[in-house]
Amino acid sequence: MKQKFYDLRSDTITLPTRDMRKAMYRADVGDDVYGEDPTVIKLQELAAKITGKRDALFIPSGSMGNLIPLMINGGRGNEILAQKNSHILHYELSSAAALAGVTIVPVEGERGIIEPTELAKHVRPDIYYMPRVSMISVENTHNKEGGSCWSLEELKAVSDFAKKQNLLLHMDGARLFNACIAKGIAAKRYCGLVDTVTFCLSKGLGAPVGAVLCGSTKFIEEARRIRKMLGAGMRQAGFMAAAGIYALEHHIERLADDHRHASQIAQALTEKSWATINPSDVETNILYFDTPNHDAVQVAAILKKRGIVCGPSGEKTIRMVTHLGIDDQDAEEICKVISNCSI
């Protein structure tokens, strides 16, 4: 009998469901560069409605959704403040510097949450030979900090600080809807506190590709130009947009299942001597655990032999991410494998 593997490397490995594929097949399409793809238009209108923003733009990736605001609102030679473990700082190939001409300044912040007192330390005096801070970027949920979520109070404090300092505020909301489900906060309430927001369709929502960038009408008009500049003018993109529409209409509420599965797995790991984790830190679908007495690569290799595929994230840290492809029975089997695994 062929061994079954449970892939917990990321929620990006999900495959379109049968119904999502049907929606893609049936999509009406046109040339989106001319603004004539009806399904892309429908997706953008839906995204704007959900986030409460005036307009939205379908783009290939969340990384582009972070880069475009940097290019428009950052300003060459300026600085952007972001928590020190942010995706925008560590995992986007220094595109901020290489393409947008801005510097990302790392800011201290426990579990990915930055406070005005820390931000204030990095706002420079207005002297001609010093770079200006022009933007703040927040990440919700925060990938490298274990899927942690912002509260409305925390985000409002940063929003108020940004307004006081005349700074723009961007949200990297790659997993925004995980935060919405975990905190019971509507996307509109989060997004009402920021100037621009991007969210991914291809992570927990289960679409094969794509993200949406949302903001004011003027901002999105310029974003459309920058998207083209970056080589991302898409033609009959409605097939992909249809997957995004289906995801937004059918896959948001089910994110609670992913969160529950992550908590189950975290609990199973607490019972193993080779793993260290605090289950209360698992807020959404991402969990990190330490392997204090073992090399993380070796532990991951042993787990893979037993059917669990996961990703080392440091010498003694491993990341697991639950997703659409892991159901209740799978989660139970994963916990059994962990319980029976000796290292």
TrEMBL record:
GO biological process entries: glycine biosynthetic process; L-threonine catabolic process
Residues modified to N6-(pyridoxal phosphate)lysine: 203
Record InterPro entries: ArAA_b-elim_lyase/Thr_aldolase, Low_specificity_L-TA-like, PyrdxlP-dep_Trfase, PyrdxlP-dep_Trfase_major, PyrdxlP-dep_Trfase_small
Keyword Lyase recorded: yes
CDD domains: TA_like
GO molecular function, one term: L-allo-threonine aldolase activity
Aromatic amino acid beta-eliminating lyase/threonine aldolase domain location: 7-290
Cofactor: pyridoxal 5'-phosphate
Record-level GO cellular component terms: cytosol
Keywords: Lyase, Pyridoxal phosphate
Broad EC category: lyase
Its EC number(s): 4.1.2.5
Coiled-coil ranges (or none): none
Protein name: Threonine aldolase
